[in-house]
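[recover] target loaded
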């Protein structure tokens, strides 16, 4: 079977003659040989362009399938299609290191991260970051293209910081988030650029800065620097409301983070107020049966529980459970977290039977999802004591 390159090679006039498929006389019959050569060369170029176009479509289709499977949490299938897209892309760009290849490494890294394969995720992110950095330093790279690559570099640094945060390596996470802020300084609009260009890039940068500031604030919260964390979160919130508007999911997410930190600091009145703001926005923007709505309802129930509003908390947790089962399924980890909190609530209400029922439901889901017996969540529902729950309940907020 011939591949495209075999066919292209065969169509070259010199090869047609050499292979005895035609003669000089045949080629020249009624035409100038140079004219024939020119026309055949144009046909070859067209075939090559068609081949590239088909490969690009194939690459795009594979990436789309990978993204679809990632969204469906079918991670093995997602990785398979991303790897196939990687092979196609390398053939298209003709090199091993290219921003398009980096993009696929980022997609693969996010899948590894979802699977808690942090070492593999880190390697893929770092490989992508290296390619972006090389492309940025390329003098041939156009300025707007370079700016886009700078933003991608910052996003990748944020993702690397997220992994260090999840691993508990807070100082390194802080370092990566700071690096993400610094790298974007290279794309600050210059004085001679038009007002339209300045406005576009200022907006883009501020949106990305706000995201990174939220990440920095999360690290400070984990390090116990509550006031510093709240200060940075509020700065991020101000930037998001200015450049994204008040009705934006990023604003709702930042409100949720601010409420969470107030909860951790036992400032329950503020936490209750801000969680309600976040809940209202998420319902408006995402609908009532979205998993993010379940998250806020769960958080709101925890605040009500800690404020000893037990009957109100029971109603809130019940709503959270309904939404989580609808949006994520009955065996999702977040569904288990809600059962765990409902068990803690029943324990505080001295309803031992209901407490045991909810703790057992949560434990079963945790085990189905592969959590070990020494995992914090499994220990929480296994011991089921109020003293342990009071110290651990905060861990279910995220």
């Amino acid at each position: 079977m011939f591949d495209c390159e075999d066919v292209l090679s065969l169509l070259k006039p010199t090869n047609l003659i050499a292979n005895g498929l035609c003669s000089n006389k045949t080629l020249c019959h009624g035409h100038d040989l140079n004219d024939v050569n020119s026309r055949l060369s144009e046909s070859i170029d067209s075939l090559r362009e068609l081949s590239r176009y088909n490969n690009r479509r194939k690459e795009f289709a594979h990436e789309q399938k990978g993204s679809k499977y990632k969204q469906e949490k079918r991670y093995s299938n997602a990785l398979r299609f991303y790897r196939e897209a990687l092979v196609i892309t390398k053939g298209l760009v003709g090199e091993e290191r290219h921003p398009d290849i980096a993009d696929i490494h980022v997609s693969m890294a996010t899948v590894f991260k979802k699977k808690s394969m942090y070492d593999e995720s880190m390697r893929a992110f770092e490989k992508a970051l290296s390619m972006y950095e090389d492309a940025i330093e390329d003098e041939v790279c156009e300025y707007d293209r370079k700016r886009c690559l700078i933003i991608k570099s910052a996003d990748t640094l944020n993702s690397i910081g997220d992994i260090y945060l999840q691993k508990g390596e807070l100082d390194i996470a802080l370092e990566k988030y700071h690096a993400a802020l610094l790298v974007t300084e290279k794309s600050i609009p210059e004085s001679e650029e038009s007002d339209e260009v300045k406005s576009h890039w200022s907006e883009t940068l501020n949106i990305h800065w706000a995201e990174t500031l939220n990440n920095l604030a999360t690290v400070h919260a984990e390090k116990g620097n509550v006031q510093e964390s709240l200060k940075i979160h509020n700065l991020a919130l101000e930037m998001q409301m200015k450049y994204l508007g008040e009705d934006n999911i990023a604003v709702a997410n930042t409100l949720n983070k601010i409420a969470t930190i107030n909860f951790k600091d036992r400032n329950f009145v503020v936490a209750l107020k801000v969680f309600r703001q976040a809940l209202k926005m998420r319902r408006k923007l995402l609908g009532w049966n979205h998993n993010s709505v379940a998250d806020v309802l769960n958080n709101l129930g925890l605040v009500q529980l800690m404020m000893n509003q037990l009957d109100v908390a029971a109603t809130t947790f019940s709503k959270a459970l309904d939404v989580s089962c609808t949006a994520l399924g009955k065996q999702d980890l977040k569904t288990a977290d809600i059962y765990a909190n409902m068990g803690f609530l029943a324990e505080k209400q001295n309803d031992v039977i209901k407490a045991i029922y909810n703790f057992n439901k949560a434990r079963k889901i945790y085990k189905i999802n592969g959590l070990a017996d020494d995992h914090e969540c499994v220990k929480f529902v296994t011991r089921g004591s109020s003293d342990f729950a009071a110290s651990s309940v905060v861990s279910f907020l995220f």
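[recover] notes: The chain is about 80% helix and 0% strand.
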